[in-house]
Amino acid sequence: MRDINQFTITQAVKDSFRTEAGSRFEKLLHGFLDHLHDFTRENQITHEEWMGVLNFLYDCGQISTPERHEFILLSDVVGFSALVDLINSKGGATEGSNLGPFYLDDAPRKKLGADLAGGREGACVLVHGKVTDTLHKPLPGAIVDTWQADGAGTYPIQEQAQGQDKMDLRGIFETDDQGRYYYTTILPKPYTVPFDGPVGRLLRAGDRHAWRAAHLHYIIRHPGMNAITTEIFFEGTEYTDNDAVFGVRKSLLARVLPARDVAALGYDLDREPDAVCEFDFVLAPEG
Ligand code: BEZ
Ligand code: FE
User: In whole angstroms, what is the distance from residue 60 CA to residue 119 CA?
Assistant: First the structure.
């Protein structure tokens, strides 16, 4: 007869699962149980505290919809999403950062030099740079998939009910024979992650704000290379020191400078830029 007490219970639970010895599943399951049980023992968790956790998770499920995934938001604000991004960033490659909830996998293809602003107000900025491998060799034919908020910090997809086209402020470009990408757009503004649900309660309980630093989102792909999901932030702008989802890295800060000598770049642009933001992406080989 096994004797279950607060010290033997962890092994008993692990033994109750029939898992393949040495498998990844077994390692993760056992590790998770060990950590959770240790945490519970070390902190002598009360019934009330445990019910508080379960009810919080229940509320996260209740508010979630196909458009709103409160568990991802929870993972974002406690830094798990960023931690997984950081762990999976390959040495020498551009660091990864949040995908966020507004990615669409069928954005329109755009020609290099196109303007993504769609007539929106705001200073026109040329965003440009190279996609290279880790040895700085340019990668022609790389796919640069980008999406962003507008000058009020709103994604067009959030305002479809107000007549906005969800495909605005996004596009897919292909780098030219020198590995260059370039397009014009308006600078996005910071915005808040949703804080009207349980994750918002958690932020308020910890006296935290819900603001994200202004950013441009990217997925960069090239055959034979590891794709990266990342974001560019802007030096000297608000919340770069305390982004609500821990997405900002020093290496992802770009400068926005007044446009000078843009003609010398030899780009065929649809719109004359007021400002320029340069950022190079680096992909590591697969494997
Ligand atoms: C975003 O970057 O779009 C985002 C990221 C995390 C939570 C909410 C929004
Ligand atoms: Fe975003």
Answer: 38
Spatial distance between the Cα atoms of 228 and 243, rounded to a whole number of angstroms: 20
1: CB partners within 8 A, 6+ apart? none
CA distances, 42 to each of 6, 28, 35, 111, 154 (Å): 11, 21, 10, 58, 44
Give 179-234 pLDDT, tens digit per residue: 999 999 999 999 999 999 999 999 999 999 999 999 999 999 999 999 999 999 99
40 CA to centre of ligand 2 in angstroms: 35
Q: Which atom of ligand 1 is nearest to the CA of 155?
A: 3
Position of tokens 């800060």?
253
Q: Is 103 exposed, middle or buried (0-12, 13-18, 19+ CB in 10 A)?
A: middle
Roughly how many angstroms between the first and final C-alpha of the chain, as a whole number? 49
Query: Does the pLDDT value for residue 251 go beyond 90?
Result: yes
Give the alpha-carbon dihedral of 106, 110, 115, 117, to 10 degrees. -10
Closest CA to 147 of 183, 181, 107: 107
Which tokens hold the place of 167? 């495909």
Average pLDDT over residues 3-24: 96
pTM: 0.92
DSSP state of 105: T
Which residue, judged by its Cα, is nearest atom 8 of ligand 1?
193
Domain annotation for the chain: domains and CATH numbers: 9-65 (no CATH), 71-283 (2.60.130.10)
Q: Can you tell me the distance from the alpha carbon of 80 to that of 86, in angstroms, rounded to the nearest whole number?
A: 10
Q: How far is the CA of 39 from the centre of ligand 2 (A)?
A: 33
